[in-house]
Amino acid sequence: MTNKKQFIMNSIRSDIINGLYKPGQKLPSIRKQSQEFDCSLNTIIRVYQELEQEYLIYSRPKSGYFVVAQEVLSPLIQKKRIDFTSAAPDPSSISQMDFRQCLNKAMELFEDSIFTYPDPQGLLSLRQEIVKLFHKQQVFSSEQKVFIFSGAQQMLHLLAGMPFPNGKTNILVEQPTYWGMLSALKAQNQTVIGIERTPNGIDWATLERHFQSNMIKFFYTIPRFHNPIGTSYTPEEKQRIAELAQAYDVYIVEDDYLADLETDTKADPIWAYHCSSHVIYLRSFSKVMLPGLRLAAAVVPNSLIPLLHLYKHTADLSTSVLSQGVLEIFIKSGMYDHHAKHMKSLYNHRISKLKEISSKILPKELLYSIPFSGGLFSAMNLPNINREELVKKLNNRGIDVLPTDQQFLSSFPKMDLLRLSIIRTDETAIEEGIRIIAEELEHCKITRSPQKPFSWI
């Protein structure tokens, strides 16, 4: 969606939600709106069509477009909150019409497969498309090494419980990290060790000691746009992780869930550093496509293929054929590349806005991490602030923020972090939300310790 089209849609949507157009009222004609906004007729047609998909307006043949009834609008009017918590895509940023077309085509092309149990590893035709897609992130492989999963969570759950060729049993995770991985590990009573990750990275001596002495089966890491702190490892850091993994026979589970949002064309994954024998490369499609499709793909070393095939088969026989078909058509048609570029631009503008306004008005000592560009998350550190009180006050003012407690192991020292997500918050809401956070911080009691002053990491 172009910036102008987005502006027009936001403007009309805001007028409807704020009551400037009354329920049942006819909207200005397409021609009049095109003159008002100085744009083409086709732009207004697409705006009206997408607002209709959001159930804000409806069309009457030969009569025009009208605002929907008040009782239908009321949930939308009430939902005027600023959401800094969500990790699911903004529905308004995804063309549901494109997905509907792909779904209809998948029903036609994969009709026979729907009535069978296909390969647990995934449809061969889709795996071939995944190989081409991953090449763009410098992950060179073959379809024999690609597995399709019912979401990244299924993959993480299987890896946590299955034995590995190195014969080791313990799992190392960054702290903090993705809560879903911690949940999978806890559910299976795995022995888990944490290693601190800050915006400055990790301590290399500690990492090597764990690899050398603690029987680490695999190290789970989010090198790019980390969840929750948002930062990325440098190329040198990725290479060092790869070298240590090979040296100490430790597998790396590389969760590259936001590869499509990368703005640096030279930012390669760990897989690219000549260590494909020890890296499991995992990609979710939930941030670019609909999370409800439940799709993820992984490239695995040859040594893991037979065992993973067995574990995948016992988990669900096969991933949804329809979901796989939709993804395959979406990639083949070029829709995936087009949509990924749109999402990258959209989120990059938002994270840049967050960085700009946060650096300008928030106390510097509380800014824990703000990515230079790209990604979805940043984090605030509130070590000397009543965090519960702050979260409650923000909630009362319509601001949703997320403490990161669930993203730490229970045995690991927790930091008083708040994760800020921009995935469902546009630039206007980001500025308003950060200003409200700044106001509430001024009213919170801050006790500074002379022995441990604030620092902006």
UniProtKB/TrEMBL annotation:
Keywords: Aminotransferase, DNA-binding, Pyridoxal phosphate, Transcription, Transcription regulation, Transferase
Entry-linked InterPro entries: Aminotransferase_I/II_large, HTH_trans_reg/aminotransferase, PyrdxlP-dep_Trfase, PyrdxlP-dep_Trfase_major, Tscrpt_reg_HTH_GntR, WH-like_DNA-bd_sf, WH_DNA-bd_sf
Domain spans labelled HTH gntR-type: 2-70
Record CDD domains: AAT_like, WHTH_GntR
Gene Ontology terms for molecular function: transaminase activity
Cofactor (UniProt): pyridoxal 5'-phosphate
Family to which this protein belongs: In the C-terminal section; belongs to the class-I pyridoxal-phosphate-dependent aminotransferase family.
Protein name: PLP-dependent aminotransferase family protein
Gene source species: Paenibacillus ottowii
